[in-house]
Design goal:
Elements: H1 4-14, H2 28-44, H3 48-60, H4 68-72, H5 77-103, H6 106-109, H7 115-158, H8 162-179, H9 186-208, H10 213-216, H11 231-234, H12 237-245, H13 249-261, H14 266-293, H15 296-300, H16 307-314, H17 316-346, E1 356-360, E2 364-369, E3 379-387, E4 394-401, E5 406-412, E6 416-417, E7 431-438, E8 442-449, E9 452-457, H18 466-471, H19 474-486, E10 489-490, H20 491-498, H21 502-515, E11 518-523, E12 526-531, H22 543-554, H23 562-571, H24 573-597, H25 602-632, H26 647-668, H27 672-694, E13 701-708, E14 714-721, E15 724-725, E16 728-734, E17 737-743, E18 745-749, E19 754-761, E20 768-776, E21 782-784, E22 787-793, E23 796-801, E24 808-812, E25 818-824
Parallel strand pairs: 13-20
Antiparallel strand pairs: 1-8, 2-3, 2-9, 3-4, 4-5, 6-7, 7-8, 10-12, 11-12, 13-14, 14-15, 14-18, 16-17, 16-19, 19-25, 20-21, 20-24, 22-23, 22-25
Helix pairs in contact: 2-9, 3-9, 3-13, 3-14, 5-12, 5-13, 5-14, 5-25, 7-8, 7-17, 7-24, 7-25, 7-27, 8-17, 8-24, 9-14, 9-17, 12-25, 16-17, 17-24, 20-21, 25-26, 25-27, 26-27
Length: about 850
């Protein structure tokens, strides 16, 4: 930068010395930004174990810790510590079960799946519904409790009425909801969580200075020393402890990131378990010091958090640190829970019917599949092939996949695509496809369907890209450049340019047409050739732009039925925002009513969510997911705890949480609403467990995976049967020969030259077979390979196009030998198949 040539060039261009571009000193705000960036980079590049540990610990230790001393005051701190250790160990086991289930699931490792997809894959639609209800309950009660806790603590500090603080926090939440998202990173979440843990340790230190022996030795256990059973004593303990330990969603948040750095799953499992152990120690110290400093009768009567009586005992220093904790913990937490409820409602509002879509020639496919079942059947794929040269009508390739085979036809349309002629049955679902206009390069169509509609981009960009330039021959590249200059050229002109006869020139042009680098154009009675440049892959439109386009398009469409008018209303962005925020508004009004009537209870609300939602999400689901994933998982992690699958242990954990909910509904709780809710929850979970078992959740599965790595130079194959690696005969066919081996997993060299892979599966006692052929993108996501699958089991052969189902298919099999043939296909319009 400081050479004479650079200085002179800068002076010539800008008429001022080069030294003027340097700042004499860095502004304080810039220093803060640089420091934050350096800290963010350091936190986000932690080793995988510490990433899992930090994210789990900071998500587990939240505002629920402020309710623990109040819950334990009725039985005493020593008994409370014993309960914290027992239930903490149980939660560490369920955390390990969740982590192993995530590690065994390919859609989490190589996709964007979260708990909804995880539960849906293993436990079916019933399990997914119960999970959604549990998530809604956790968001609902947490937001209500945070409103109450935030307002009561700040009222104690400022003497401003709690209703005002709730209103202020609600308005802040609505502001972030109007923005559509809360911008956050792993670094910011970790930093806030670590600050909160540091504040808890400081408050623990202050509380320890005021501990009294009589408070520490307080003991009130039913049936001990002749004491009668009082349900009120146990009312808060179980639920508060479970909600305090609830951090299971953190495994889903960090699972993909940690598994990418450590595929063995060692860091994920050990990191999450270690975080639970640290949480146990922290909670025990907190309960011992706070309950030892405050008389039990004061804590039992507290409706807010433990910070208020702690500040009265220790002094105003607690108000300072406690206020910071409440603002960071409850304030930020309330915004996150508001956003969670907002998104849960928004994504379930009816979308506008009859979307109009632009489909480029050979540029992608329109995929239709059953709603809520992205890998379900029947499935339909539609690709635009351009205008027919003879009749000028738009030409399509239609692929319909059923449970047994794939039907592929090429057809033309004039106004409306007749789906019945393509093999689509009325029983498969309502489907009408109308062609609005079509050119050689693209067409617009309108889809009316009861199925979910997605647009899949092409496997390769259509046209010549820089990668094509590097991979093409010199002659082809010179020809491509010549066509760019000419605009278009006849076959005779092409033959003259390359110095070949017309048949040889036609063969060369057909190759370029199949690659998508050259287009055929009808000019009069002659075929002309034109160079095609690749289009840049488009980005997904933001919601507000997409909604604006939908509103503009709606003005051009007449709707006569009440159903369409209702859809128009629900498509209005203001109506959708109001409906999406309605749960948050309801919780705000409910909080205000509770505060005005004096019925608010921070611990009571958290306890209800802990007994119902945390028991289901953090206790029952981990058991079911672990059992299912060990029988039908896609991947065998190198590290896991074998004893977790012990039937006695799994049944014991399941019964513990079921008994906890049932006892609260029959004995402990006295409120009719709480009792009914608990009994309904027990019935729902029992019905879900039975439904998942009868639906095949625990059926053993064999999984054949063929994976191309992101660098595209090589790939891997892996065979898993009943949760364990299974060695089989594997034959890899290339153009220059075959390679055979007998292994459970291995490398696939020169993947780009692979024509097919054949797997000979011996009887494995598996009742299902899953075949997954996919490619890992540079971002670590998964996309389907262009693959035809033939599965021969006994006398029956089934054929599938895996691109229609995201690169994977699951089918029932008998306990017999099977041959799985994965054939990689060319995605040109002339490809045909069964």
């Amino acid at each position: 930068m400081d050479t004479d040539a650079v200085k002179q060039a800068h002076r010539n261009q800008y008429a001022k010395p080069l030294e003027t571009i340097f700042a004499p000193r860095v502004a304080p705000l810039d220093r803060v930004r640089w420091t934050w960036t350096a800290l963010s980079n350091w936190l986000e590049s932690l080793p995988p174990f510490w990433t899992a540990f930090a994210l789990t610990l900071t998500e587990t230790v939240g505002a629920g810790i402020l309710a623990l001393p109040i819950a334990m005051a009725s039985v005493g701190p020593l008994v409370g510590v014993a309960l914290l250790v027992i239930l903490g160990v149980v939660n560490a086991l369920t955390m390990a079960a969740i982590a192993e289930s995530v590690a065994r699931t390919g859609s989490v490792r190589y996709g964007n799946a979260f708990f909804g997809r995880l539960v849906s894959e293993y436990l079916g639609g019933t399990g997914s519904l119960i999970l959604t209800l549990a998530l809604v309950t956790i968001n609902f009660v947490a937001l209500l409790a945070y409103y109450i806790g935030f307002s009561t603590v700040l009222t104690d500090v400022t003497q401003i009425r709690p209703e005002v603080w709730v209103g202020l926090l609600f308005l802040v939440g609505v502001y972030f909801l109007s923005r559509g998202s809360l911008s956050s990173t792993i670094a910011s979440a970790l930093l806030i969580g670590l600050i909160n843990i540091g504040l808890i340790l400081i408050l623990t230190l202050f509380a320890s200075m005021h501990m009294r022996v009589e408070n520490l030795l307080h003991l009130n256990v039913p049936f001990l020393a002749g004491r009668p059973f009082d349900p009120a004593i146990l009312e808060l303990i179980f639920g508060i402890v479970l909600i305090a330990y609830f951090g299971h969603t953190s495994v889903g948040n960090c699972g993909k990131l940690v598994l990418r750095r450590d595929p063995s799953a060692r860091s994920l499992i050990w990191g999450t378990v270690a975080a639970q152990v640290v949480a146990i120690i922290l909670y025990c110290l907190w309960v011992l010091t706070v309950n030892g400093a405050i008389a039990p009768h004061i804590l039992v009567s507290e409706k807010g958090t433990a910070l208020v009586p702690l500040a009265a005992t220790v002094g105003s220093i607690v108000r300072v640190f406690g206020t910071v904790f409440v603002i960071l913990g409850m304030g930020m937490g309330s915004i996150h829970f508001s956003l969670g409820l907002f998104n849960l409602v928004r994504e379930r509002l009816p979308a506008r019917a009859q979307p109009t879509l632009l489909l480029a020639r050979l540029g992608g496919r329109l995929i239709l599949h059953p709603r809520g079942k992205p890998d379900g059947t029947p499935r339909l794929a539609l690709m635009y092939l351009g205008l027919d040269t003879a009749r000028g009508k738009p030409k399509f390739r239609v692929e319909i996949q059923s449970d047994r085979s794939t039907r592929r036809v090429e057809t033309m349309a004039d106004g409306e695509l007749r789906m019945a002629d393509c093999g689509w049955q009325k029983a498969d679902g309502e489907l009408q496809i109308a062609v609005r206009d079509a050119t050689e390069e693209s067409m617009r169509l309108q889809v009316t369907s009861s199925l979910a509609v997605t647009l899949e981009e092409g496997w390769d960009a259509v046209g010549a890209s820089m990668l094509d330039v590097l991979q093409t021959s010199d002659l082809e590249w010179q020809l491509f450049q010549w066509l760019l200059r000419q605009g278009s050229a006849r076959l005779a002109d092409v033959a003259a340019f390359v110095g070949e006869d017309e048949p040889s020139a036609r063969a060369m042009m057909d190759t370029l047409v199949k690659k998508g680098n050259v287009a055929q154009v009808q000019v009069g009675n002659e075929i002309h050739y034109r160079a095609r440049l690749a289009r840049k892959r488009g980005r997904a439109l933001p919601d507000h732009i997409r909604q604006a386009l939908d509103v503009a398009e709606a003005r051009d469409t007449q709707r006569s039925s009440q159903v369409h008018r209702t859809s128009d209303v629900l498509s209005n962005k203001y109506v959708r925002f109001f409906l999406s925020t309605s749960p948050v508004v309801f919780i705000f009004l409910l909080t205000e009513w509770l505060l005005l009537t004096g019925n608010e209870s921070f611990t009571g609300v958290l306890n209800f969510g802990g007994v119902i939602a945390a028991s289901i999400f953090g206790g029952i689901f981990p058991v079911l997911l672990l059992i299912a994933s060990r029988r039908k998982g896609d991947i065998v992690p190198q590290m896991f705890y074998r004893f977790l699958d012990n039937p006695v242990l799994m049944l014991g954990i399941w019964l513990l949480f079921m008994a906890g909910i049932l006892l609260h509904g029959l004995v402990i709780w006295q409120d009719p609403f709480q009792r009914i809710t608990a009994i309904v929850a027990v019935i729902a979970v029992l019905a879900m467990t039975i439904a998942t078992i009868r639906g095949g959740a625990f059926k053993p599965r064999a999984v054949v995976q063929l994976r191309q790595e992101s660098n595209a130079a090589h790939g891997e194959f892996a065979i898993v049967a009943r949760g364990e690696s299974a060695a089989v005969r594997v034959r890899l066919d290339y153009a220059d020969g075959e390679r055979e081996q007998h292994a459970a997993s291995g490398q696939v060299p020169n993947f780009a030259l692979l024509r097919c892979a054949i797997f000979q599966l011996a009887p494995t006692r598996a009742q299902e077979l899953k075949v997954w052929a996919h490619r890992i993108t540079p971002d670590g996501d998964s996309e389907a390979l262009p693959v035809r699958l033939d599965v021969e089991c006994g006398a029956e052969t089934k054929r599938f196009d895996l691109r229609l189902s995201g690169g994977q298919v699951v089918l029932p099999i008998a306990d017999e030998a099977c041959t799985v043939e994965v054939v990689l296909q060319n995605d040109s319009p002339n490809t045909s198949g069964g």
